[in-house]
C-alpha cells in the first residue's frame, strides 16, 4: 500500500476497516459496499468481522447453532437468511410467524384460506429456498410467487395463490399450476419451470417469492 494514500478511507488496512464496519447497521454496511472496490471486497467476505458482529447483535448463540442456521457456513449467509425469511407484517391474521421468521403456523380457523409472504420483494436475480412442510397438506396447499397486490386471505377453501393476475400458484395437492384462476394440469418439472418463468418475466413491481397457503379441513 502506498504510504501517501494510507490516510484515504478507501485505502485503510482491512483490520481498521473491520473495526469501523463492525459498528455499522446492516443497511449502512450495504451502502459501504458501494463506495469503492476495496470496501466491497472487505465486506463481501462472508466470514469477516462485520458479519460476525451483526450476528452477535441480531441473533442469540442458540439460534445461530439451531437447525435453521447451522447448515449455513458464513455469517453473511446467516444474516441473508434472516432478511429473506417470512414476514410477520405481511401475512393473514390467522398466521403466526415464529423463530425470527423461519417458521410460520396457521391457526386452525374453519372456512378460511391464508397466505404469508417473505420480508423482501424481488424484481431481478435468482433466489433459492429450502422449505420443510411439517403438517399434512390439507385440502389446498400452495407455493408460488405473487406481487404485493395479491390478497393474503379469503373466506372458504380456495386456491388463493393464482386466483388473479397478481400471482402464480402451484397446488401441491392436485399438482396443478394456477394463474388468473385458470388451472393447468402438468408435470412437476413443468410446474417448476413455469413458476421460474413467471418470476423472471412478470411486469409487476416487487415479487414476493415462495408464498404459502396452508389449508386444513
TrEMBL record:
<dbReference type="InterPro" id="IPR013320">
    <property type="entry name" value="ConA-like_dom_sf"/>
</dbReference>
<dbReference type="Pfam" id="PF12937">
    <property type="entry name" value="F-box-like"/>
</dbReference>
<dbReference type="GO" id="GO:0060386">
    <property type="term" value="P:synapse assembly involved in innervation"/>
</dbReference>
<dbReference type="GO" id="GO:0043161">
    <property type="term" value="P:proteasome-mediated ubiquitin-dependent protein catabolic process"/>
</dbReference>
<feature type="transmembrane region" description="Helical">
    <location>
        <begin position="188"/>
        <end position="215"/>
    </location>
</feature>
<feature type="domain" description="F-box">
    <location>
        <begin position="6"/>
        <end position="54"/>
    </location>
</feature>
<keyword id="KW-0472">Membrane</keyword>
<protein>
    <recommendedName>
        <fullName>F-box domain-containing protein</fullName>
    </recommendedName>
</protein>
<dbReference type="InterPro" id="IPR043136">
    <property type="entry name" value="B30.2/SPRY_sf"/>
</dbReference>
<keyword id="KW-1133">Transmembrane helix</keyword>
<dbReference type="InterPro" id="IPR036047">
    <property type="entry name" value="F-box-like_dom_sf"/>
</dbReference>
<dbReference type="InterPro" id="IPR050672">
    <property type="entry name" value="FBXO45-Fsn/SPSB_families"/>
</dbReference>
<dbReference type="InterPro" id="IPR003877">
    <property type="entry name" value="SPRY_dom"/>
</dbReference>
<dbReference type="GO" id="GO:0019005">
    <property type="term" value="C:SCF ubiquitin ligase complex"/>
</dbReference>
<dbReference type="GO" id="GO:0045202">
    <property type="term" value="C:synapse"/>
</dbReference>
<dbReference type="Pfam" id="PF00622">
    <property type="entry name" value="SPRY"/>
</dbReference>
<keyword id="KW-0812">Transmembrane</keyword>
<dbReference type="InterPro" id="IPR001810">
    <property type="entry name" value="F-box_dom"/>
</dbReference>
Amino acid at each position: 500500500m502506498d504510504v501517501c494514500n494510507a490516510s484515504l478511507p478507501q485505502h485503510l488496512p482491512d483490520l481498521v476497516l473491520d473495526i469501523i464496519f463492525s459498528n455499522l447497521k446492516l443497511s449502512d454496511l450495504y451502502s459501504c459496499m458501494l463506495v469503492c472496490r476495496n470496501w466491497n471486497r472487505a465486506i463481501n467476505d462472508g466470514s469477516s468481522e462485520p458479519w460476525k458482529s451483526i450476528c452477535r447483535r441480531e441473533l442469540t448463540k442458540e439460534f445461530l447453532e439451531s437447525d435453521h442456521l447451522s447448515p449455513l457456513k458464513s455469517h453473511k449467509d446467516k444474516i441473508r437468511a434472516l432478511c429473506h425469511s417470512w414476514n410477520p407484517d405481511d401475512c393473514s391474521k390467522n398466521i403466526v410467524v415464529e423463530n425470527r421468521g423461519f417458521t410460520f403456523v396457521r391457526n386452525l380457523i374453519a372456512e378460511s384460506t391464508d397466505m404469508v409472504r417473505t420480508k423482501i420483494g424481488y424484481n431481478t436475480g435468482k433466489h433459492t429456498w429450502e422449505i420443510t412442510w411439517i403438517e399434512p397438506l390439507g385440502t389446498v396447499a400452495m407455493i408460488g410467487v405473487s406481487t404485493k397486490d395479491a390478497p393474503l386471505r379469503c373466506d372458504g377453501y380456495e386456491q388463493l395463490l393464482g386466483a388473479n393476475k397478481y400471482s402464480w400458484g402451484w397446488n401441491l395437492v392436485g399438482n396443478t399450476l394456477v394463474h388468473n384462476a385458470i388451472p393447468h394440469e402438468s408435470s412437476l418439472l413443468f410446474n417448476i419451470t413455469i413458476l421460474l418463468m413467471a418470476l423472471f418475466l412478470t411486469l409487476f413491481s416487487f415479487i414476493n417469492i415462495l408464498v404459502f397457503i396452508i389449508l386444513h379441513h
